[in-house]
Design a protein that fits this description.
By secondary structure, the chain is α/β, with parallel strands linked by helices. 39% of the residues lie in helices and 18% in strands. The protein is globular and about 75 Å long.
Length: 324
């Protein structure tokens, strides 16, 4: 009698399925993005990102307290400034909103992993990620300003800085600036493969960072390219990036997998605002089961190779994973 192979034996009960599960989500995998603004007593929901808020510093600390209690891996902090100019100078101000938030968070929760986004788009009057001249973004003059932003965050208490601008050479510019100032322990998580994606719309609403003219295709990556992502990642690692990131996540799972297969380094993936908003909208219409689809999606990102997942569902997922 020929034996019948029965893989279903390992699917018969929840206990067996959990025992042999190859990919498991952990709350420590998640990084939760937060948006801090000036003022007091402000907690305004972002219309295109239900459940996410612009928070003044006092309200931000309430969010941070919940994150700490949930045991989430850390936070990624974005600032919404009161002042914008041509070069984004408020981004590196000692009294900038991110710098204030970093000091307060580290004062109350010194063990929380605090990551800050390093970019200029929400600080510049034109909405681009660096210095413009005659409508063209100037790469090298932007590097010094990005390095100043990173150093100001490190001085305020950031454990890790995350340059998201996609300028050539920004990782080494930041690394040298931090090391010269004796912040050699501050890590760099580089947005190494950041694509010129249509999935960023809600975030640009949240960060008030949409470009006033043109687009970012001259510095963010072409969604059609895969080999280019590997070149970008290698360059960042050669420049001393500690973690490399792929953004967005869902449409770029193949890029995450290629990163994992090619580099022995931690891989992060950003589950971005458009991915979040689409599922939220479908769930609100009862077209999908939000909890089930989110956990399936986050598992796919981890299965592709990301050890670190930046997601607006971090708080919910931390509560849900015990039931998955």
């Amino acid at each position: 009698m020929d034996l019948i192979h029965r893989p279903r034996r390992l699917r018969t009960t929840a206990g067996i399925r959990n025992l042999v599960r190859e990919t498991k989500l952990n709350k420590e995998d998640f990084i939760y993005p937060l948006f801090v603004i000036g003022g007091e007593g402000i907690k305004e929901e972002i219309p295109s990102m239900p459940g996410n808020y612009h928070c003044s510093l006092d309200q931000l600390m309430i969010e941070v307290e919940e994150i700490v209690k949930l045991g989430i891996g850390g936070i990624l902090l974005f600032g919404i400034p009161d002042h914008k100019d041509e070069i984004g100078s408020s981004a590196w101000s000692e009294d900038g909103i991110v710098q204030q938030a970093c000091r307060k968070i580290k004062e109350e929760y010194p063990e929380l992993l605090l990551i800050t986004d390093v970019c200029l788009c929400q600080y510049t009057s034109h909405g681009h990620c660096g210095t413009l001249e005659d409508g063209c973004l100037l790469n090298d003059p932007t590097l010094e300003n990005l390095a100043k932003v990173a150093l100001s965050h490190a001085k305020a208490g950031a454990d890790m800085v995350a340059p998201s601008d996609m300028m050539d050479g920004r990782v080494i510019a930041i690394r040298e600036k931090l090391d010269q100032a004796c912040y050699d322990d501050v890590a760099i998580m580089s947005y190494s493969a950041k694509y010129a994606s249509a999935f960023y719309g809600p975030f640009r609403d949240a960060a008030h960072s949409a470009p006033k003219q043109g687009d970012r295709k001259s510095y963010q990556m072409d969604p059609a390219n895969s080999d280019e992502a590997l070149r970008e990642m290698k360059l960042d690692l050669d420049e001393s990036a500690d973690i490399i990131m792929v953004k967005p996540a869902l449409a770029y799972l193949d890029i995450i997998r290629r990163a994992k297969d090619n580099f022995i380094t931690p891989i992060a993936a950003y589950n971005v605002s458009g991915e979040y908003a689409m599922i939220k909208a479908a769930a609100e219409k009862d077209w999908v089961n939000e909890k089930a689809i989110v956990l399936e999606m986050l598992t796919s990102i981890k299965r592709a190779g990301a050890e670190i997942i930046i997601t607006y569902w971090a708080k919910d997922a931390a509560k849900w994973i015990n039931d998955y």
